[in-house]
Amino acid sequence: MTSDGSHRTEPSTTAGEREMLEGWLDYHRSTLAWKCEGLTEDQLRLTPLQPSALSLMGLVRHMAEVERYWFREIALGEDLPELYSTRDNVDGDFRFTDGDTWAAAERVWQTEVELARQAAANRSLDAVSDAASHHRGEVFSLRWIYTHMIEEYARHNGHADLVREHVDGATGD
Asked: Each residue of 26-46: pLDDT tens digit?
């Protein structure tokens, strides 16, 4: 079950391309929320896989940055300030102060997910980014961005599985 009490929705096995991509991305977003469910603030901040700085809160903050970067900065060409990481603190998403809270991290992540959905709405999967909109100088189709985001969540959900198991022993797909 996800944090709102609902079950994750399995992606359709027969959907069209866009519905399939959106379904898998939402499934993976829900999986990360599920991995964080039911834990205390302290547990969400734990970094049990030393020397790694991985924590569930850090993964959520990281994915907020990733959502923002790919859907808004790359796909739409928006010039946005950094959320957590900077050139001087490249791992800022995984390094937090006592003032940083789970509630704030989750709120920012959910906001970025909603803004990502809005950025992709009514755009063709063939729509491409402006090469000048970012440091890489490449263009990316919205289809590529969806595929990359699915890969990004799948990889980090594997990390979340390991962290969660070390935090409280909970396992599951």
From this structure: 999 999 999 999 999 999 999
* Domain presence at residue 138: yes
Q: With H, G, I as helix, E, B as strand and everything else as coil, classify residue 144.
A: helix
- Tell which residue, 19, 12, 15, has the closest CA to residue 125: 19
Which residues, in sequence order, are CB contacts of 2 under 8 Å at separation 6+?
Answer: 8, 30, 33, 34, 37
Residue 5 lies in a domain: no
Token pair 């809270």 is found at: 101
Within-domain flag for 6 = no
CA 25 to chain centre: 9
The reply to whether 11 falls in a domain is no
Render pLDDT for 88-133 as a digit per residue (tens, 0 to 9): 999 999 999 999 999 999 999 999 999 999 999 999 999 999 766 6
CATH number of the domain encompassing residue 55: 1.20.120.450
Measured between alpha carbons, how far is 62 from 75 in angstroms, rounded to an integer? 18
Q: How many domains does the chain have?
A: 1
Q: Which residues constitute the domain of residue 122?
A: 17-168
Q: At how many degrees (to 10) do helices 17-36 and 102-120 cross?
A: 180
